[in-house]
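Justification of resources, computational component.

The compute hours requested in this renewal are based largely on the per-chain cost of generating structure records like the one below. Each record pairs the submitted sequence with a full structure-token output. That output is archived, and it is also reused by downstream analysis tasks.
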Amino acid sequence: EQKFINENRVYVTWETFNKNLGKFKSRADLVEALDNNFPGEKHRRITNWASQLWPFAHEMKVGDLVLVPLRLRPGIQFGEITSDYKFSAKAEDPYYHWHEVTWIGDPVPRANFAQDLLYSFGAFMTICRIQRNNAEARLAAMRKNDWKPETLAAQTISAAADAEIGEENSNTDLEALAGDKIAQLITARFKGHGLARLVDAILKAQGYTTSVSPEGPDGGVDILAGGGQLGFGSPRLCVEVKSGDTPSDRPAVDKLLGAVTKFGAQEGLFVSWAGFKSTVQKELAQSYFRVRLWSQKELMEALFANYDRLDEDIKAELPLKRIWTVAVQGEA
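The structure output for this chain reads:
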């Protein structure tokens, strides 16, 4: 995904398939070429691939909105297509096929979208058009409103439509949807300064002794944490927690770095539920050994890793159950 963002492109990434998709006159021709390129693959999988490759070259057009559900940081990255389909047989495998795009701002938090849209975003199909439940008009309205969460009126759809699993999301990513449900519960039960309580509980489960600042102005630090029973050991952390829906910027992180010096700590931890501006990670390379950044993704990974050791009160507010399911390797 970082290649997509850095190069302002969306690619088709079917390895070894370096045929110009624009030259095929019909889907049947494309299916035949895929059969020849991937001998031994099941016909159902080949037709599934064709149903994604064909619209990428023949239907996606300049001005269309595209979205990329991000894995490395929480959120949905939106962009607008700015070129027709392009192909280069000499490109690095598998980046032979692409559209140029202009990315629209920073990633939008997943929590801003209604559950029915997240169902569609969670489709296993790499390339699909999101149409159910008036999705295109609703996303256009959100774009005009600077991607703020939808109003309840805008989300109004029938319960049957919300529960229905349509063609575009018949292979929904259950892991992503479970993460969305957990994130929504955290947002509801740990609002504002409450998120600092959750981070504090995770740090305690990791073996730190902590002190949490009272709600209100905190001088750039929500939690002080140190190793050992009294907190005098190493490492010594200053922790800042932001629970809002706006990505944190560089000045906010710099303020935490100042607090690390002020409090005589060794490192800082900045937790931002909405993530960080796209430039923050690049700009902080020189501070790698002084600060760590947790977005929603890292916070939830730490939560899952330490959940069994959390205080019972926290687990009562955030009741989770571990389940196992088959890992899908590809279409049948």
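The CA atoms of residues 214 and 293 lie 22 Å apart. The longest helix spans residues 43-58.
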